[in-house]
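Lab meeting, item 3. Inverse folding demo.
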């Protein structure tokens, strides 16, 4: 039931991904040419110098200075060429270590991504599992980890980067096309490592500003009686201990912020669609959907589930 994801290194959508793609193809072609040359020469020698009946073994030849110089210099030069293009790509895809304050902080958790945008007024826009970026603009992303080593990878947009506890890393994140790009955690990090997807939505600068300002705004307070009962359930259970809903519960990032949950495309870091039936499934049995998840099963009754999902769906 999860949304289809189609990450690929074969349709690069940023200068960084394009550079990695070109390097990959270049190295593959160079290696293929070497393979064809070597196999060709061996095949040629096998046929041309094949021993005939009753001919004696040929005399071994040692120490041809010209040949030995050539097959030492050849591979050396090939590696120098590869190194040149590799260093060029590395310089393009990784920001220098003194790049300063990030535009965006991503924190890997077991098994979801915390997303924080520092704002000009000193506050932050906080969300989870879905990054928005303005198209055509290079974003300095700082990656951290809250627990174990994760690895952030959106193949269409750039390189992999490890999220290491206590060691922030930075990369450029950029897209030259409008669209949604999917990625995932690329380092085994426990039972639900496979359900640690990331979505990057590249949109116009104006749309991005609207989205980010909205993420920074407090949650919509529910009006209907059902949603208010849901809010009471949220408050009276341990939900509030782990989940931030700005204006309702405090900013603790043990579980994802739910302030604008209903505006996201997926739930549970890509494991479910963001629909009321999937939300109810998740609330009634997290363990069945995401083994090992820290979210407990509360054993809600049917009407409690309805109230809670109605409340969460108000959080646009
Ligand atoms: Cu996080 Cu694998």
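The presenter then showed the designed sequence:
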């Amino acid at each position: 039931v999860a949304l289809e994801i189609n990450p690929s290194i074969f349709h690069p959508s940023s200068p960084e991904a394009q550079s990695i793609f070109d390097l990959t193809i270049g190295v593959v072609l160079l290696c293929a040419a070497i393979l064809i040359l070597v196999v060709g020469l061996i095949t040629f020698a096998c046929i041309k110098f094949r021993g005939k009946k009753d001919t004696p073994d040929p005399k071994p030849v040692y120490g041809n200075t010209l040949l030995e110089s050539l097959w030492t210099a050849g591979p050396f030069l090939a590696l120098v060429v590869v190194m040149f293009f590799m260093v060029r790509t590395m310089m393009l895809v990784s920001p220098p270590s003194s790049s300063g304050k990030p535009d965006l902080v991503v924190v890997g958790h077991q098994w979801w991504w915390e997303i924080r945008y520092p704002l000009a007024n000193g506050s932050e826009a906080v969300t989870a599992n879905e990054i928005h970026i303005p198209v055509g603009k290079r974003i300095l992303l700082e990656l951290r980890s809250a627990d174990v080593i994760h690895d952030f990878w959106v193949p269409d947009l750039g390189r992999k980067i490890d999220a290491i506890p206590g060691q922030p890393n930075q990369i450029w994140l950029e897209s030259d096309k409008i669209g949604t790009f999917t990625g995932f955690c690329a380092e085994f990090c426990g039972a639900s490592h496979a359900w640690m997807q990331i979505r990057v939505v590249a949109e116009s600068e104006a749309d991005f500003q609207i989205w980010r300002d909205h993420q920074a705004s407090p949650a919509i307070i529910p009006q209907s009686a059902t949603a208010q009962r849901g809010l009471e359930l949220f408050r009276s259970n341990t939900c509030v201990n782990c989940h931030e809903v700005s204006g309702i519960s405090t900013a603790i990032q043990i579980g994802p912020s739910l302030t604008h949950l209903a505006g996201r495309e997926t739930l549970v870091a890509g494991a479910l669609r963001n629909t009321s039936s999937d939300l109810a499934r998740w609330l009634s049995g997290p363990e069945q959907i995401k083994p090992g998840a820290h979210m407990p099963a509360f054993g809600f009754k049917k009407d409690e589930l309805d109230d809670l999902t109605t409340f969460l769906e108000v959080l646009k």
